[in-house]
Structure formats: C-alpha cells, structure tokens
Design brief:
This protein folds into two domains: 129 residues, 3-Layer(aba) Sandwich (Rossmann fold), CATH 3.40.50.10240; 80 residues, Sandwich (Jelly Rolls). Helices cover 17% and strands 34% of the residues. It is built from four helices and 14 strands. The strands form two sheets. The protein has a ten-stranded mixed sheet, sandwiched between helices. Strands 8-13-10-11 form a four-stranded antiparallel sheet, with no helix packed on it. A hairpin with a 5-residue loop joins β10 and β11. The longest helix is centred in the middle third of the chain and has 11 residues. The two termini are 31 Å apart.
Length: 216
Amino acid sequence: MKAIILANGLLPTPLQALPSHDLLIAADGGARHAFQRGQGWIPHIIIGDMDSLSPSELAGYDRAGASIYQHPADKNETDLELALDFAIRERATEITLYGLFGGRWDMTFANLLLLASPKYAGVRLRIIEGDSDLYILRGGETLTLQGQPGDIISVIALAGDASGVTYRGLTWPLENATLPFGTPHGVSNSLAKPEVTITFETGTLLITHAQNPDTN
C-alpha cells in the first residue's frame, strides 16, 4: 500500500501532480499545500495538533472531505511522527514524503533522524526534495536506482557503522565494505551506468540521488 505524507516544509517545484498512491496524509500545516495546488491534492487525513492551521482552514478541509485527527499540543510526538504512525497502522509498505525540509534546522534534522527509527523497519521510505530523492535503507534491503551518468549518489551511515556495503553501477564501486558512522565516506559518488544497485548487511543508510545539473 502506497502512502504520501505532506509535511509543513517546502515542496519541490515544479510539481503539478503527485505519484500514484492509496493514502494521502497531511501533517498539520502540510495541508496548506493541498488547496494551493488543486483537488487532486486534498488529503484523506490531516493529523497533528493543528497549531499551524486556522479554524476556518480546518472547516474548509472538512468540507472538502478530509478526515481530521486533532491531537493535544502537549504531546510527545511531532506531527510528522503522528502521520508516519498512522500510515503504518493503515499497513503502508511504501511512504513518499514531501516538505520535510526548508524550515527550522532542528525540525529538519529531527525529521530525518525520525525516519531511521527501528519502528519503521520494513517500510520503504522516500523523500522528495528539490532535484534530489532520499531513501532510508536498513540492513538486508536492496535499492535499485535509475538515472543519467553523472548523477550524484551519496551513501551515508545513519545509525552506527554499516557493514557488507556493496554497490555497482557507480564510478567508485564497493564490495562488502564497511561505511563508518560519522565520516563522509560514501559521499559524492556518481552514476557510471544508467542503473545502480546498493545492498548491505547491517546498519541503516541514508542514500541520496541528485540529478546531474548538466542533464537538466
């Protein structure tokens, strides 16, 4: 089951339509992206403490058919975490996230590290940010990407060392290597072929794919 989550940061432009999905969730102020872009963006669910939305905005979303799940402001979870947890309860297997970045730095880092939480293991997580796609991968998973030669691929250990890292199709391949946590090893590789495959055994990886500006 494919879910999309709209957070309250900036959306990539131009972005006229969302990819195919079964469930569209807005995390609080992320709902504003909906009415700015048309009927196809109206979320099925709006969830959070609603501190970023006015009563009149909430009433408008309600009339448009969105289900609103309001939580107390005094809570332990961020609005994004509530949205992710809702998607998991609805048995989402793939979640694409928009608007995670472009606001406060503390929220940007917290959002990124939240996705590395073990409770989201088993769900393919993809972030769309400008001309880049970001993925969270866990040990034993495989990621295959298509692109143009020269596209920038970075592979970063997020939660301790990542071991057994192998990737093919990049300018500098690896074979059963260890990427240490807290180092820039794995940053700024590039596509040598139209397809790259990344596998590893243990750990958690952040993988970024940025389009080569010379091909845009």
